[in-house]
Amino acid sequence: MKIVCIGGGPAGLYFGLLMKLRHPAHQVTVVERNKPYDTFGWGVVFSDQTMDNMRGCDPVTAAEIEQAFNHWDDIELHFKGEVFRSGGHGFVGIGRKRLLNILQARCEALGVELVIECEATSAADDPDADLIIASDGINSRIRTAHADVFQPDIVTRPNRYIWLGTPRLYDAFTFLFEKTEHGWFQAHAYKFDDKTSTFIVECPEHVWLAHGLDKATTDESIAFCEQLFAANLQGAPLLSNARHLRGSAWLNFQRVTCAQWSLHNGHSQVVLMGDAVHTAHFAIGSGTKLAIEDAIGLAGLLHDAGHGAEALPAVLQRYQAERNIDVLRLQNAAWNAMAWFEVCGERYCDQLPGPQFMYSMLTRSQRISHENLRLRDARWLADFERWFARRAGLVLRDDPNDTQRPPPPMFTPYTVRGLTLKNRVVVSPMAQYKAVDGVPGDWHLMHLGARALGGAALVMAEMTCTSPDARITPGCPGLWTDEQGAAWKRIVDFVHAQGDAAIGMQLGHAGPKGSTNAPWQGAGADLPLESGNWPLLSASAVPYLPDGQVPRAMTRADMDRVRDDFVAATRRADAAGFDWLELHGAHGYLLSAFISPLTNRRSDEYGGSLANRLRYPLEVFAAVRAAWPAHKPMSVRISAVDWVDGGTTPDDAVAIARAFKAAGADMVDCSSGQVHPDQKPTYGRMYQVPFADRIRQEAGIATIAVGAISEADHVNSIIAAGRADLCAIARPHLANPAWTLGEAARIGWVPQPWPAPYRSAKSQLEAGFARAAAAQAPVKVES
Ligand SMILES: Cc1cc2nc3c(=O)[nH]c(=O)nc-3n(C[C@H](O)[C@H](O)[C@H](O)COP(=O)(O)OP(=O)(O)OC[C@H]3O[C@@H](n4cnc5c(N)ncnc54)[C@H](O)[C@@H]3O)c2cc1C
Ligand SMILES: Cc1cc2nc3c(=O)[nH]c(=O)nc-3n(C[C@H](O)[C@H](O)[C@H](O)COP(=O)(O)O)c2cc1C
After folding, report:
1. What's the CA gap between 626 and 29, in Å, rounded?
2. Cα–Cα distance measured from residue 666 to residue 704, given in angstroms and rounded to the nearest whole number
3. Which helix (H) or strand (E) holds 584?
4. Ligand minimally distant from the alpha carbon of residue 431
């Protein structure tokens, strides 16, 4: 085959040499517009795992790189005068020029033709080529020329960065944070040869503008950065090698994805590779890794297919399908890491204490979990756990030789008002639809009782309704009669008598989503009852489903009646002995229907602006708070986003949380959606945690995270990073009432107490998990 690589970066050169190595009969040319030593950038990093892959493909190149690279294990953070360092992260740093020179030399040795200082103008420059690799970087000319087929999606991110070098040698992947009068700057620095370190400085656009850096020359920008990081640079200069670039030396990162990676241009197959088809933010330093692994992937597939041109169409399709999985996974992690650096100045720098800031930064990609940190650096994590446990109020011995294991963050206590929860796990409220005339019965005693014995600190009862017409279904429990109050008291008394879990009541009014079936009855959930319906109330006469029951827009008299019902139910909840009260302001029910602009179309003082839409829910909250004893905590559950255009946004959620905080809420329980049937949620592991995190830091109120949190490792990571204060777990508790006890055993947290009659199962379960863990080698996730 005749193969032409347009662009002699890591992707084009490595693909070229691999093809020639595997099948010397190929005619391979790499066209590069720059001189061999003329390259933008300083060092690049990639992981140990990429090195392993390269060793498997071409040991000669790998050995050369290994001789030239710098390997280090540590990440170091300089933050507010403190230095934090943790190990086991495994990076390889190499000068970009050095890497390219090694690849160029190997290409030449193998007989790849290098056409240097030659600008390729189009993929049709070489009509005889069977295969054209468009490895022409982030601004790929080939991709742009065929944008109709490749369908690139290019997102320009808001932060500004400048890529500099320095002779100061950083022997760890070092992060520096400095605050100015206009906001925070951060630097990412690492050594890549004996004389030089990469030094990337980054800040939000508004901070950059406020410092006038948009008007600064490269020299002025360098002088600014030198002064900003003077204490750390210790007199070392910062250097630029991008003076040839036009315009500002400060760039915005562009995230590139493409729907299609290859095409036939009438002469040749053309395929995108490396930065031309996808980019990954430098926050997890993976652009070179992806470029090299693209080259490995395509070269391997062509080799397996026998190196014939006739196999190209099928091979190129497979290349995209296979590589795209890895790329998306990495882009996702890089996106989370990038987003963390974009908001850290506003969200974390001033809010989190140093050790927790370090933890949050290390887990920024959300791919590294608590147990993964333990694999990397067990000692650092144990120190962190000790620090965290002390902050949670535990008294630990101050003996450096103390081998006593501190409790993982999940098993630290949490105090709010007069209540101390024994750990951070909440059984999330889950409707059972098993009440008769609103009276909870044996089912509820069994359901809540079993979960109260299962290790969680707080068991929340399901949404309990304030009047008959506040119910979702005829099977919903209530608190509008003394009989219901007494039935709840039986359950609360059992929980208090048999264990040390607290029990919470969730009060709600179904609003426009009432008068429906239980999920397994009649037409199913959310659909109107076939008979026996009751009239519905809501903010506006907007049905939940297009052909559903139309609620009546509440009058002021309705509002008074419903508020008073909430207050009466609150008094009954207190009399029943509940320890905690949650107001249900989420999921499209009555209070949520006031908050969301999708369901609130009122033109009076209860509709329009967010402040107006919040007026009635806050009135109910204040009335309930006043009736609920001051020593007992109260939370509010909100839908932090509606997942529908024009609905509530995460920005709104921060404002909503601030308003409830001002009204006396202790915590915000951060759920999402279920407000509108057109919602398009992005589900995934811990998918609602970012809302809890943002609200906690920006509104300054404690939060409960909920949604697809299914392992102790998730809970530990969330609590340790300060993304939430408690984690509510729903579906896993349906499968296993003793979920918390099981997870404690799984992670080897042996001090976890069990109910006395169940104790004989404890050591057996622990031993089983220990055996399973020993049989399975732990895996350290990359970046
Ligand atoms: C600030 C910053 C820090 C980074 N840090 C890291 C890091 O730590 N680790 C990491 O792995 N990655 C890092 N990267 C990303 C990394 O530089 C790229 O992802 C990687 O180089 C992609 O390789 P590539 O071969 O696809 O493209 P490139 O390296 O961009 O190579 C493309 C080549 O094509 C040439 N070219 C373009 N158009 C033409 C044309 N028309 N004719 C001829 N030649 C042409 C260019 O001159 C260039 O040499 C960083 C990027 C930035 C911006
Ligand atoms: C069967 C069931 C019933 C639920 N009922 C309620 C409820 O009464 N009140 C509420 O706020 N959320 C309710 N939810 C939502 C859960 O509390 C929780 O937010 C959601 O299931 C996501 O958590 P998970 O991924 O741990 O299941 C219910 C969920 C389930 C599965």
Report:
1. 78
2. 10
3. strand 580-585
4. 2
Taking a C-beta distance cutoff of 8 angstroms, is the pair 60, 106 a contact? yes
Q: What one-character-per-residue DSSP string does 234-266 give?
A: TTPPPB-S-TTSSS-S-EEEEEEEES--EEE-S
**Alpha-carbon span 324 to 305, nearest angstrom:** 20
Give bridge partners of residue 465 from the DSSP assignment: 478, 508
Name residue 140's amino acid. S
Whether the predicted pLDDT of 209 surpasses 70:
yes
Q: CB under 8 Å to 662, separation ≥6 — which residues?
A: none
Contact in structure between 20 and 107 (CB atoms under 8 Å): yes
Atom of ligand 1 nearest to the CA of 294: 26
Give the DSSP per-residue string, 188-241. EEEE-SSS-EEEEEEE-HHHHHHTTTTS--HHHHHHHHHHHTHHHHTTPPPB-S
* Measured CA distances, 187 to 164, 180, 200 (Å): 10, 14, 5
Q: Residue 138 Cα, ligand 1 centroid: separation in angstroms?
A: 7
Catalytically annotated residue among 589, 616, 683, 687? 589
Q: Token pair 């970009």 is at which residue? A: 96
Q: Which residues contact 278 (CB under 8 A, 6 or more apart)?
A: 256, 257, 258, 290, 327, 331
How many Cβ atoms are within 10 Å of 645's Cβ, its own excluded? 9
pLDDT in tens, 257-305: 999 999 999 999 999 999 999 999 887 777 899 999 999 999 999 999 9
Rounded to whole angstroms, how far apart are CA atoms 380 and 577? 43
| Phi-psi region at 157: left, alpha or beta (left = phi > 0; alpha = psi -120 to 50) | beta
d(C-alpha 272, C-alpha 330), whole Å: 18
Residues with Cβ < 8 Å from 354, sequence gap 6 or more? 77, 79, 80, 82, 84
- What local confidence, expressed as pLDDT, does residue 90 receive? 82
* 419-421 vs 173-180, strand pairing mode: unpaired
How far is ligand 2, taken at its centre, from the CA of residue 397, in Å? Answer: 40
Contacts of 567 (CB under 8 A, 6+ apart): 623, 624, 626, 627
Does the annotation count 589 as an active-site position?
A: yes
Q: Which residues pair with 184 in a beta bridge?
A: 179
Nearest CA residue ID for atom 15, ligand 2: 430
Q: How buried is 181 (Cβ within 10 angstroms: 0-12 exposed, 13-18 middle, 19+ buried)? A: exposed
The rounded distance, in Å, linking the Cα atoms of 475 and 439 is 9
Q: Using CA positions, which residue lies closest to atom 12 of ligand 2?
A: 429
Question: Are 43 and 95 contacting, i.e. CB atoms less than 8 angstroms apart?
Answer: yes
> Could you read off the pLDDT of 681-724 as tens digits, one per residue?
999 899 999 999 999 999 999 999 999 999 999 999 999 999 99
Percent of the chain's residues with pLDDT above 90 = 85
User: Scanning the structure block, which residue is given the tokens 């963050």?
Assistant: 409
**Count of other CB atoms within 10 angstroms of residue 542:** 18
